[in-house]
Amino acid sequence: MSMNRLEEVRQRHQRAEAGGGADRMARQHSEGKLSARERIDLLLDEGSFEELDKLVRHRCRNFGMDEQVVDGDGFVTGHGLIHGRQVFVFAQDFTVFGGSLSEANAQKIVKVMDLALKTGAPIIGLNDSGGARIQEGVVSLAGYADIFLRNTLASGVVPQTSAIMGPCAGGAVYSPALTDFVFMVDRTSHMFVTGPDVIKTVTHEDVTKENLGGAMTHNSMSGVAQFLAHDDQDCLQSIRELMRFLPQNNLDGVPRTATQDPADRTDRELDGLIPEESNKPYDIKDVITRVVDDSCFFEVAEHFARNIVIGFARMAGETIGIVANQPAHLAGCLDINS
Ligand code: HXC
Questions:
Q1: What is the model's pTM?
Q2: Of the residues 75, 100, 127, 173, which should be mutated to test ligand 1's pocket, given the most ligand atoms within 8 Å of the CB?
């Protein structure tokens, strides 16, 4: 390759890393959000990320798009390690056309999903996207069809985890809603089929972004999200924690973790935790944390249907799932949400 060609490739790598430019990146940071690349760095074991398709470009020539071409087309995709185990990831960069999905960058997601299925490894999507790229029309929608199909094919085969890390609309939330675990970041993330302005036009109803699709709305009312994070760092750290409990795929065993907590440990407190009167409430989580290894209970859907408690823990170092009635809430009675 001539020196000019090498220089061109080097510059294209730099442009891919710069995303939508310094101003948009500054806005992203000022809103308390990390960039797509910063998020991947925090999610994966240090230095383990291998990027794919870094120089992919969109093919849209309408609406002046031929003059706005960003290498990588706003998605960062590839694979890396979490606690030494392989995962496939994609992260949408809101600074490039609002992280919207194009024909070209949809194929980047499709590639990592196919590789995850072929190799039997989890898929993690970090979503920060305004949905289908308006300028591309139906070819962008077709990209979502390819992704939704793979969401259904991967379901029950490899774990699929989504983080909603910005204002996500349209297809950018339909796909995450099909996945196994959904994390949201409080205040900086939203999940809408469509935003408050369209709701106002169509139904004449005034609704805030937070009430319509905020992190607490989806964690406590719709149940679409199961984890509420304080900020991006907290969200990515929690995903790493979740991964400790999950098998790589449906043929893999659950991971084991060394523990100093003896399997035959006795705990006298347990004798008195459950009241003798059956009409007195108690907190089932006090029982769970006293029984499992190292009092470590990773609760799923903490804010939804609090009359039932679900989550992961370990006994004798081995992952277990827990489903427990919660007498401290609605007397632990089952309802449709639980
Ligand atoms: C192209 C988009 C975009 C999109 C945002 N941008 N969404 N570009 N396609 N879908 C661009 C904006 O033009 C802007 O560009 C930059 O991203 C940041 O957007 P802002 O509006 O300034 O940000 P914010 O105020 O935070 O609002 C974010 C937002 C809003 C709530 C996501 O942008 C929005 O409502 N976008 C449209 C959402 C939408 O209707 N999507 C289509 C969904 S339909 P500049 O150049 O100014 O930085 C769909 C169907 C799927 O997905 C069906 C599958 C079968």
A1: 0.95
A2: 100
